[in-house]
Write a structure and sequence with these properties.
Blueprint lengths: L5 H4 L2 E4 L15 H6 L1 H7 L3 E4 L27 H13 L3 E6 L9 H6 L13 E2 L20 E4 L4 E4 L14 H16 L4 E4 L41 H13 L5 E4 L5 H4 L12 E2 L3 H4 L4 H14 L7 E3 L8 H4 L2 H11 L5 E5 L19 H5 L42 H5 L5 H14 L1 H4 L2 E4 L6 E7 L4 E7 L5 E2 L13 E6 L14 E2 L4 E6 L2
Parallel strand pairs: 1-2, 1-11, 2-3, 3-7, 7-8, 8-9, 10-11
Antiparallel strand pairs: 4-6, 5-6, 12-13, 13-14, 14-18, 15-17, 16-18
Helix pairs in contact: 6-7
The structure holds 1-deoxynojirimycin.
The site of 1-deoxynojirimycin (NOJ) has 9 residues, from loops.
Length: 535
């Protein structure tokens, strides 16, 4: 591994394909739409696109229920259109990362259709079938992530099958060598077609306890929280054997130079970093979701960054994720003002940044009327605010009908603010969040100190989060005011450089030319600045 692999230097942009751009007026985004918008992504400056699943699927979980791993759902296009997308992506020097969903298939996948035909079918052991528990009922107490038991009884054969998510998403049995080989064939299929890597869905779920022991109750469970939180997922996920499987995937990926293996993992830090694998034999990038989960204040963010940096194995490359299709949007979580600070933080931290489509224009969660709810989790556990539709609404391109997303009826309602909050308008507006993102991305590319350079915290508390990024050529200081109030700068931080030596490179608040050499003494509420040190 060289120190400058693209997935270390680069910025990943997450496209939720249903909502990015429709090209055939059916109200759902598609591959042709993504291709049409590559100019925009080039203008923005990102390096790689990760696309949520586009494979044939009954869409019970919007593509995370795959019924054929080696084709494209007609809703999104065809294999030929996929190839055209790969070609267009490469022509722009971008990378394309696909979502791989190996933990479960759709219940309509031919493997499962076969598996459920009889206890003696050759595919029976491709899934997780168990006899009823003693006295009848489910084999153990494991819960589905979307509520209810994780076991579904199949009357035809008198056994239960396991599903960590919907009953329409039966889990594959990763203890079975045939299953592993079948999924590795799938990986090869897409790698040969030119994809630059995979984001592996729920990778920490692949292995389950060999004895199917009950999960213990969660002593911190609070009423009103999703049912899955009633139990600690001690035996149903994150089993030690999973690392052997991931090492196999990594070995396969390594045969294709320059490809990346990204793992989706929601675990506490000490368990998350194990997914780099022994001697870095695991995922290149175990997704780090701490920016999504952490409290938005200096003390929390500073200790989180310090602990993460300290926990990384030697040679393990950091990464930071600001949003995704499962989480409330950043502008909703911390407010529109702090969303700018968050952009500056994401794009100046050490490690690969992943940003979620629409966050660059400050899109917020869109309230979805009950009658329009589509997310299966929302439908199964209404009233708990678990619904993921609000963060999946169509991209807002311009102020024409349906924000330029579709000429049909959009599959989810659009935000009512799209006339103001859209790419066209914000791209033309000096000082917009979109221009800020573009500027930050440009700086990160121009100065390797900001992407692959070193990192040093300059604060531990107070309202301003401050840190230094440096390499042998350059040194930058970043100051982020996480409060709503004006904060004086210099009393708060232990900068190594005298004020006169700093040049202001960028402010979230678009300070004018005159500020660039005069030292800034205080930051507006929610303002962030980047200084370059003069030698
Ligand atoms: C994680 C995906 O991000 C989420 O959208 C999906 O529902 C589950 N995995 C199940 O595949």
């Amino acid at each position: 591994m060289s120190a400058t692999d693209w997935w270390q230097r680069g910025i990943i942009y997450h496209v939720y394909p249903r909502s990015f751009q429709d090209s055939n007026a059916d109200g759902v985004g598609d591959l042709g739409g993504i291709r049409r918008r590559l100019d925009y992504l080039g203008w923005l400056g990102i390096d790689a696109l990760w696309i949520s699943p586009i494979y044939p699927s009954p869409m019970a979980d919007f593509g995370y229920d795959v019924s054929d791993y080696c084709d494209i759902d007609p809703l999104f296009g065809t294999l030929a259109e996929f190839d055209a997308l790969v070609t267009a992506v490469k022509a722009r020097g971008l990378k394309l990362v696909l979502d791989l969903v190996p933990n479960h298939t759709s219940d309509r996948h031919p493997w499962f259709v076969e598996s459920r035909t009889s206890r003696h079918n050759s595919k029976r052991n491709w899934y997780i079938w168990r006899d009823p528990g003693p006295g009848g009922g489910a084999p153990n107490n494991w819960l589905s992530n979307f509520g209810g038991s994780a076991w579904e009884f199949d009357p035809a054969t008198g056994q239960y099958y396991y599903h960590a998510f919907l009953k329409e998403q039966p889990d594959l049995n990763w203890r079975n060598r045939e299953v592993r080989d079948a999924i590795y064939d799938v990986m090869r299929f897409w790698l040969e077609r030119g994809v630059d890597g995979f984001r592996v869905d729920v990778i920490w779920h692949l292995m389950k306890d060999a004895w199917f022991r009950d999960n213990p109750p969660n002593p911190s469970y609070q009423q009103g929280r999703p049912e899955i939180e009633r139990l600690l997922q001690l035996h149903s996920a994150d089993q030690p054997e999973v690392h052997g499987v991931i090492a196999e995937m990594r070995r396969l990926i390594e045969r294709y130079p320059g490809r990346v293996l990204i793992g989706e993992i929601y675990l506490p830090l000490d368990r998350l970093v194990k997914y780099y694998g022994e001697d870095l034999s695991g995922a290149h990038l175990p997704f780090n979701f701490q920016l999504i989960q952490a409290g938005w204040n200096t003390r929390t963010l500073a200790s989180m960054i310090r602990e993460y940096e300290a926990a990384l194995p030697k040679g393990g490359w950091p990464n930071w994720v600001l949003g995704n299709h499962d989480q409330h949007r950043v502008a909703t979580r911390i407010g529109p003002q702090q969303a700018r600070v968050a952009a500056m933080l994401l794009l100046t931290l050490r490690g690969t940044p992943t940003l979620y489509y629409g966050d660059e224009i400050g899109m917020e969660d869109v309230p979805i009327p009950t009658a329009s709810a589509r997310d299966p989790w929302q439908l199964r556990e209404p009233g708990l605010s678990v619904g993921r539709d609000p963060q999946r609404t169509p991209m807002q391109w311009d102020d024409s009908a349906n924000a330029g997303f579709t000429t049909g009826i959009p599959w989810l309602p659009l935000s009512s603010n799209y006339a103001k909050c859209n790419v066209e308008k914000l791209a033309a507006s000096e000082g917009s969040i979109l221009r800020l993102y573009r500027h930050l991305i440009d700086l990160r590319h121009r100065f390797p100190a900001l992407s692959t350079g070193g990192f040093r915290l300059l604060t531990e508390g107070g309202d301003i989060l401050a840190y230094e990024r440096f390499d042998e050529n350059e040194c930058f200081e970043v100051y982020l005011n996480l409060s709503r109030e004006v904060q004086r700068l210099d009393e708060k931080v232990s900068s190594r450089a005298p004020r006169e030596k700093r040049t202001l490179m960028l402010s979230t608040h678009g300070r004018g030319e005159s500020d660039f050499h005069a030292p800034v003494r205080s930051l507006e509420g929610g303002e962030g600045v980047i200084y370059k040190m003069r030698r």
